[in-house]
Amino acid sequence: MKLFLDTAEIGEIRTIASWGVLDGVTTNPTLFAKTSGMTYDEVLKEICTITDGPVSAEVVADDVEGMLKEGRHFAKLADNIVVKVPMSETGLQAISRFAAEGIRTNCTLIFTANQGLLAAKAGASLLSPFVGRLDDINEEGMIVIRELSDIIRFHEIDSEVLSASIRHPRHVTESALAGAHIATIPFKVFQQMVHHPLTDKGIAQFRSDWDTARKALEARGKKKG
Ligand code: G3P
């Protein structure tokens, strides 16, 4: 399973890359709005120097020609850019046009398996169901991940299910068990995945026991001398 980082913050991307676990990055206008001082193009180019994996850049136009213009521009920034297009009738048109041009796309804002199936048929490389936002409205986001992953594998469709809107570490585990090819994870959740109270307690205990043993050895050495 591949793990992407869901952020536009360069520092966060460098950190997760340094752990050796970063397979790609997803950005969107909301995540870009949290950054400061760089244009979206500059942010995307910088991210693409940190990872060779897919980097999603989202279009904001709501008409096909506008989406194509923005997406073609993003695709020229780096070889690993994937154009993120929202699920809609115009979005599907843009996805199929991008596919014909050899530009990879990530269909975002998917909330049903049928939307994912349509995006795959139109030629999207990545299909992004939003798990957390479905949970927020009292639906079961993970059902969409499971259904869409089953459909993709059963029919041998050449698209990958990317579990998005991840809110906590259980979402990652459940996405992996439900068959998602990828999860895109916020920085904070990556950190939560690393830690466990018993791990942290165990590290402190080993360090303290090591210091005790070392001091005892030193004391014995001093006595002999
Ligand atoms: O990748 C999509 C993701 O950023 C949406 O997450 O938490 O805004 O629902 P959220």
| Cofactors, ions, other ligands | SN-glycerol-3-phosphate
CATH architecture of the largest domain: Alpha-Beta Barrel
Reading the helices and strands in chain order gives EHEHHEHEHEHEHHEHEHH
Rg of Cα set: 22 Å
Output mean pLDDT.
97
Number of domains: 2
Provide a count of the helices: 11
Number of strands: 8
Q: What's the story with the biggest beta sheet?
A: 8 strands, parallel, barrel
Look up the CATH topology of the largest domain: TIM Barrel
Shape: elongated
Identify the CATH homologous superfamily of the largest domain. Aldolase class I
Low-pLDDT windows of residues: none
Structural class: alpha/beta
Question: Mind telling me the CATH class of the largest domain?
Answer: Alpha Beta
> Helix share of residues?
55-70%
Describe this structure in words.
With 225 residues, the chain is α/β, with parallel strands linked by helices. It has an eight-stranded parallel barrel with strand order 1-2-3-4-5-6-7-8, surrounded by eight helices. The mean pLDDT is 97. The radius of gyration is 22 Å and the shape is elongated. The chain has helices spanning 10-18, 29-33, 40-50, 64-77, 89-100, 113-122, 131-136, 141-154, 169-177, 187-194, 197-224; strands at residues 2-6, 24-26, 55-58, 81-86, 105-110, 126-129, 160-163, 182-185. The N and C termini lie far apart (58 Å). The protein has eleven helices and eight strands. α1 runs parallel beside α3, α4 packs across α5 and α6 (113-122) packs across α8. It is 56% helix and 16% strand. It has two domains: 2-194, Aldolase class I (TIM Barrel), CATH 3.20.20; 196-225.
